[in-house]
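Running this now, will post back.
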Amino acid sequence: MKSFHPKKAVTFATIKKSRKMENRKYNSRRFVLVFAALLSAFGPFMTDLYLPAFPELMEYFGTTTSLIQLSLTFGVIGLAAGQLVIGPLSDKYGRRRPLILSLTVFVVSTLICLLCRDVITFICFRLLQGIAAAGGVVISRSIAVDLYEGKEFTRFFAMLSAVQGLAPIVAPIAGGLLLGITDWRGIFMTDAVRTLKEWTDAARKIVFFGGAGVSTESGIPDFRSTGGLYHQEWKYPPETILSHTFYKSNPEEFFRFYRAKMLCPDAKPNAAHKKLAEWEREGKLLAVVTQNIDGLHQAAGSKQVYELHGSVHRNYCEKCGKFYDLDHILHTTGVPRCDCGGIIKPDVVLYEEALNDRVIDGAVNAIAQADLLIVGGTSLNVWPADRKTSCRERV
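Update: finished.
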């Protein structure tokens, strides 16, 4: 009969655990390597990606070659000056805050460059772009100093140097290829999108806060845009119809509007819904906080969804509490009624009604835990959405 040796079992488990920890450590270092490489390429891409678009910029602004070239000069000056400022700041306040600040400023300045109508404003914001891009260059080197030493430091720094050497060669080529399928604005948008990708790649606790604009690509109209629901002609203003008082006093008109404008049963999740669901499956996304009532986030596969304003897919009898699905509302006319005679009310929050405390608490807790909060498709004009995102001073 074979004897059992606990020590051998423990030793085997320890070895297995050690290998698992080594793999995790390797993956973590590989991620740091890729992230730092992307940061180090920030400067060269900021200065060189748009070089092939110089003739198009001259035509757009109606200016001279020298002024367009001056935008490049100011970008390089900002890149150099920014390193003198951001370097000491990262030493004093840590790497994370200055990096987030510089990436945020870079995105904002890039978007403003897209909206510029005169070349002088464009040049000024190119300077700001350069200062912000310096954050990636200087902090990527600081990461190397913080994490590595000896041979590992030499290897890591050599990789950063190689990327910084290749980036000025690759950037104009990439810019030329992009110019074949888009204009100069597309090139600047590429910078902004690349920055957003770096944020999402680095984040491990993303929360997405969205509104009606997220579902417009699915064919559902928003509320406040020029062609939105609130600008359409009805017997009563839509904001009045969607109030608790109107629902109680004129339920027939309420349900006529509700079925015609608030229900879109054929709508399908779009790319944004699907990407958020993918991030959740990968363990990167904590939750979706939405003002929408269409249920498209769940249809795309998202599990942790806080619906601030309820959902059209849930309907309850006001008298007995019996549940009814969306199909029942669609296949009734006039005021829908339960078998008991009570009115079936959609589980959506109307004006003058209170939000669900559990949903609010869950949303606030998720945002408080986030290391990246993405806000999209909402004007943040409706309470409490206009207050929720201020619970943490973070991006």
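The first helix runs from residue 6 to 40. More later if anyone needs it.
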